[in-house]
Structure formats: structure tokens, C-alpha cells
Amino acid sequence: MLPFIARKMAVQRTFVCLVALAVFVELAMAANYTVGGTNGGWDTSTDLQSWVSAQTFSVGDSLIFQYTPNHDVLEVSKADHDSCQTSNPLQTYTGGNTVVPLTSSGKRYFICGTLGHCSQGMQIEIDTLATSTPAPATSPSSAPSSSPAPGTSPSPESAAGSPLSPDLPSAESPAGVSPSPPAPSSAIKNSFGTCFALGLGLVLMAF
Ligand SMILES: [Cu+2]
Fold first, then answer.
1. Distance from the alpha carbon of residue 57 to the mean position of ligand 1, in angstroms
2. Predicted confidence band at 169 (pLDDT cuts at 50, 70, 90)?
3. Exposed e or buried b per residue across 113-140, where buried means at least 16 C-beta atoms within 10 angstroms of its C-beta
4. Can you list the domains of the chain with their CATH numbers?
5. How far is the CA of 56 from the centre of ligand 1 (A)?
6. Which of 17, 87, 109, 149 could connect to 81 by a Cys-Cys bridge, CB 3.0–4.6 Å?
7. Ligand 1 center to residue 71 CA distance, Å?
8. Cβ-contact 149, 31 below 8 angstroms
9. What does the pLDDT read at residue 28?
10. Which residues form the signal peptide (predicted)?
């Protein structure tokens, strides 16, 4: 009877663990990118090409365009991006605060529709990577500049492992105290080990 209960608890804990991990991985993976970065924006004075090339975009991320009323955001074809053609946009966004979710992998093109702004640099090509494919090795040069993504630190295992570990014991302790026999403690240890292994596996898979 006891081993059965212990096993059931272990399964429950593992499940809770998995849910927590899924949420954590989701949060770690999805990122919001304010176009132009914290020191720039969607304007003619920001070096948008440099900003774009320093980022890695993945499915689930979002672009946030913040701009003054003299700008807008046009999503256009590659040809229109390359030629700064503003008359045939796929999408037009105005209002100063535009969120564009990157829902699928592939390239998307955005320019400003204000006369002359595209040729002054307000044109970006966003290459969104599929989340299932491992991101190309996070180069040391791009890692420090991408502040919103904690996952891009040079050592994913230690970065992802440390915020998790303080979480787990606290989640275990309230439930783990109530059953008196010593059997559950091995179950806890077991589920903790399982959880840790799963977490490590997930994190490794993600990166
Ligand atoms: Cu503009």
C-alpha cells in the first residue's frame, strides 16, 4: 500500500514538475523585441540593420514597434522592401505601438511608409527561426547585447538550472512533511531526480 501511495505521489510531483518546467521553458523561449533596442527605436536615427543582425528571432517571439506619429509600419514583400516601395503593403500598422507576433518561421519585411524614411534605413528583414530547430550556437558577441533573452547566455545549462533549483524544494516541502512514514522521502528524492533529469533534458533540447 505504502509503495503504491509513494509512487502515486511521485507521479503527481513529476507531473507538477513538468508543468512548471513547460511554463519556465515557454517564458525563457518567448521574447519580446522592441525594434531598435532600448537605446533606439523605429526611427531614422537608429541603425536598425545592426540591431536586427544582433538578434535571433524564434517562433513565439514578438516584435514591438514604438514610434512617433510621423512614422508607421508597413509589412511588405521582399521586392517592396528592397525597393522601398510603399504603395502595396501586406499590412499597415499605425498608432505608435505595434506588436507583431512572429507566429511562423521564415522571413518577413517591414518598412516605414513615410516618404524617404525607408531609404534612410527604416527597412528591416526579420528571419524567424523554428523553435524546434536548435538555435545556431549563441555567439559570445551577440549574447550580451540581447538583454531580454535570459536563455542566450553562454552557458544555458547553468543559467536555466539555477533559477529552477530554488523552486523545487519549496514546492516539495509543504506536501512532503504531512505523510509521516519514511517511504515518501525516497519518492520525493526519486521525483526530484526525475524532474531534474527531465528539466536538464528539456533545456538541452531547447538550446
Ligand atoms: Cu518613418
1. 23
2. very low
3. bbeebbeebbbbbbebbebeeebeebee
4. 31-132 (2.60.40.420)
5. 24
6. 109
7. 4
8. yes
9. 62
10. 1-30
